[in-house]
Each structure stands twice: as C-alpha cells, then as structure tokens.
C-alpha cells in the first residue's frame, strides 16, 4: 500500500465518521452547541491546524538552524595544510 | 575498537573536481590513518574535461593502488549508476558515500563507524539538523527552502530520518546494493528515496550530527528547476512507495 493510499484511506475514514455524525446517523452524546456550531467546522480546523503545524515546523527549524563558522575556519586551515603537503608530493 | 576484518570503501563520484579531489583525498587518508581504519577510496570520474582523472592518477601514485582505486566512466551517467559501478569494485564490507567537494568532512567518519558498531546498524546517515550539526554558507532563502522541503517530506512520507536529502552516509555493502537496486529517482530525491526504501526493507538507520560547509571551490546550485524536480519526485514517491 503506497503512502498516498494510506493518507487517502485515513482521511476518507475520518471524513466518513464526521459526515455520519453531521447528518445524525451516528449519535454521539454532544451538546447542542458542539453539534451545531463546532462539529461542522472540524475539517477546516484540521486543515488550519495542519498548516500551522507545518509553518511552525519550518519556523522552528529555521530558528534552530546552526551556522557553523568554526567548521568553515577549520576546513580552510586544513586546506592550506593539505596544499603544502600535496605540492611536496607533486600532486598539485 | 575496530575488528580487523572491517574495511571501508569510500565512493567518490567526481565531475570537474580537480581542485577539490586532492584535498578531500588528503583529508580522508589523514583521518583513516590516524584512527587505524582499513580503507580504500574509489574514484568514479565521469570523463571530466578539467582533468580530474589525471590528478586522481597522481594521487594513486602517492598513496598506492590498494588505497586509491580509479574506476572512470565514459561520460556523465548519474549518481545512482556511479554507486552501482563503485560497489561492484568495492573490496570493503562497508561503503561510505559522500560528496567530493569538501562539503562533507571526513572527520565525521570515525563517529559514523562508532555509531554503526553501537547498535550494529545497517545505515548511519549524517544529519545537519540535529545536535551539533549545521550548515555554513547558506542564506535565508536557501535555509528556508531546505527546511520547507524536509517538513513537506516529513508530512507526506513520514520517513523517520531528520536529514532526508543528505548524502553523507555509511552503509553495509550488501545493504547499499539492495537499496540501490530498487531506487529509481534522480537528483535531490535520489538520497531521499534511498532512505524510504531502506525503511521498506526494515534496515536499521542511525543518525550522526554533521557540519556541512557549502562548496569552497565552485558553485552549488539550487534553482527553480531543482525545486520543481524535488516536488515532482516527492509526489511520485508518495504515490508509489
């Protein structure tokens, strides 16, 4: 089973349950406020939450992104050491 | 620490790396010698017009034919087939793949090896996004693209690896051979697909933080074409794996 069928299957199941509750075929002990005001908006809220999660992850990743100037410095030093040695050996 | 039978074959696919190749080889030899690790470096040059192969021949004279192995090819044939070509000639029981442009530093190889032994892992992959890992030389746009690409891949493919597009990795040789057989993607997606396939085959993967210094010589490219190629590849993987 591919990732796509897995994702579509999961989304389809959730949508099915949501729809059954929405049209009243699946009685859940919900208060009227929840059933009328909250339940119909759940899919959209899920999308918003997913988007927020992804944006948040990108932002967090950016904040945690480490520049490593010390690695660059070290590499430059090693390059000059290597060049001296390689010249002596006639490689460059 | 190392059992005497372990030998590590480094695959270095090159195309116009005349400047970088001698230095990366020098660094590799230094690290392996200092840590008493048995190794060979397999250089797979795709007929570079800048004379990379001549430099490689001189390196072979200096370091010996048992350490530097030349397996040139007639033209630019892609990364996947370069690995296949390299594995065929590898005498080690482990294979290390890395870029020849010095963005991957050999000093991390002993850490990869130690990590591999810790849990007898099939694969150890370098990660720029954890612990003391990092990248030098990227602007905000490049960082944003990279993070975005990883988050998108995470949500769609749930690969369980923090640096999907990294290409500094240690494999058991038969594991790499098995994975490469079933990998079809090209470009940035190639390394990502290798991780997804690895998980499908239930190979164990460990991560080691690495620093990545963007090319000192030459230019690294990330344009619209690379991004579109990545997105296409990502969706193809979502549909097919």
TrEMBL record, chain A:
Q: Where is it found, in Gene Ontology cellular component terms?
A: dolichol-phosphate-mannose synthase complex; endoplasmic reticulum membrane
Function of the protein: Stabilizer subunit of the dolichol-phosphate mannose (DPM) synthase complex; tethers catalytic subunit to the ER.
Main localization is endoplasmic reticulum
User: Which classification does the entry list for the species?
Assistant: Eukaryota, Fungi, Fungi incertae sedis, Zoopagomycota, Kickxellomycotina
A GO BP term here is: GPI anchor biosynthetic process
Which Pfam families does the record cross-reference, listed alphabetically? Answer: DPM3 (PF08285)
Q: Which UniProt keywords apply?
A: Endoplasmic reticulum, Membrane, Transmembrane, Transmembrane helix
Subcellular locations according to the entry: Endoplasmic reticulum membrane
Note the topology in the membrane: Multi-pass membrane protein
**What is its quaternary makeup?**
Component of the dolichol-phosphate mannose (DPM) synthase complex.
> Can you tell which superkingdom this protein's organism belongs to?
Eukaryota
Instruction: Show the InterPro entries listed in the entry.
Output: DPM3
Q: Which family does it belong to?
A: Belongs to the DPM3 family.
**Segments passing through the bilayer:** 7-26, 46-63
Q: What name does the UniProt record give this protein?
A: Dolichol-phosphate mannosyltransferase subunit 3
Pathway assignment = Protein modification; protein glycosylation
From TrEMBL, chain B:
For the protein in the UniProt heading, the enzyme class is transferase
What InterPro entries does this protein map onto? DPM1-like (IPR039528), Glyco_trans_2-like (IPR001173), Nucleotide-diphossugar_trans (IPR029044)
Q: What cellular-component terms does GO give this entry? A: endoplasmic reticulum membrane
For this protein, what reaction is catalysed?
a di-trans,poly-cis-dolichyl phosphate + GDP-alpha-D-mannose = a di-trans,poly-cis-dolichyl beta-D-mannosyl phosphate + GDP
Write the record's keywords in alphabetical order, separated by commas: Endoplasmic reticulum, Glycosyltransferase, Magnesium, Manganese, Metal-binding, Transferase
Residue ranges constituting the Glycosyltransferase 2-like domain according to the UniProt record: 9-178
The pathway where this protein functions is: Protein modification; protein glycosylation
Can you supply a Gene Ontology BP term from the record?
Answer: dolichol-linked oligosaccharide biosynthetic process
Q: What is its EC number?
A: 2.4.1.83
Cofactor dependency: Mg(2+); Ca(2+); Mn(2+)
**Compartments where located:** Endoplasmic reticulum
Function (record text): Transfers mannose from GDP-mannose to dolichol monophosphate to form dolichol phosphate mannose (Dol-P-Man) which is the mannosyl donor in pathways leading to N-glycosylation, glycosyl phosphatidylinositol membrane anchoring, and O-mannosylation of proteins.
Family per similarity comment: Belongs to the glycosyltransferase 2 family.
Matching PANTHER family, A to Z? DOLICHOL-PHOSPHATE MANNOSYLTRANSFERASE SUBUNIT 1 (PTHR43398:SF1)
Q: How does it assemble?
A: Component of the dolichol-phosphate mannose (DPM) synthase complex.
By what name is this protein known? Dolichol-phosphate mannosyltransferase subunit 1
Organism name = Dispira parvispora
């Amino acid at each position: 089973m591919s990732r796509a069928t897995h994702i579509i299957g999961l989304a389809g199941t959730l949508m099915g349950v949501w729809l059954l509750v929405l049209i009243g075929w699946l009685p859940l002990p919900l208060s009227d406020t929840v059933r009328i005001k909250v339940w119909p908006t759940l899919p959209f809220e899920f999308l918003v939450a997913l988007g927020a999660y992804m944006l948040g992850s990108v932002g967090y990743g950016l904040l945690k992104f480490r520049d490593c100037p010390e690695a660059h410095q070290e590499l430059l030093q090693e390059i000059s050491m290597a060049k001296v040695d390689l010249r002596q050996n006639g490689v460059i | 620490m190392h059992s005497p039978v372990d030998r590590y074959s480094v695959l270095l696919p090159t195309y116009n790396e005349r400047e970088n190749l001698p230095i990366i080889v020098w660094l590799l030899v230094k690290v392996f010698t200092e840590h008493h690790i048995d190794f060979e470096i397999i250089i797979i040059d795709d007929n570079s017009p800048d004379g990379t192969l001549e430099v490689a021949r001189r390196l072979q004279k200096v370091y010996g034919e048992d350490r530097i192995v030349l397996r040139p090819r007639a033209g630019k044939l892609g990364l996947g087939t370069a690995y296949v070509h390299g594995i065929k000639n590898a005498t080690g029981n482990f294979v290390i793949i890395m870029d020849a442009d010095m963005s991957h530093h050999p000093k991390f190889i002993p850490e990869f090896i130690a990590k591999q032994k810790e849990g007898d892992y099939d694969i150890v992959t370098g990660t720029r996004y954890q612990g003391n890992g990092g990248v030098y030389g990227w602007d905000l746009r490049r960082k944003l693209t990279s993070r975005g690409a990883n988050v998108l891949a995470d949500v769609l493919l749930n690969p369980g690896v923090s640096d999907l597009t990294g290409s500094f990795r240690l494999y058991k040789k038969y594991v790499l051979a098995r994975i490469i057989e079933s990998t079809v993607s090209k470009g940035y997606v190639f390394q990502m697909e290798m991780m997804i396939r690895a998980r499908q085959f239930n190979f164990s993967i460990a991560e080691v933080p690495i620093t990545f210094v963007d090319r000192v010589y030459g230019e690294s490219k990330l344009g619209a074409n690379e991004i579109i190629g990545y997105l296409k590849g990502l969706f193809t993987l979502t549909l097919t794996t």
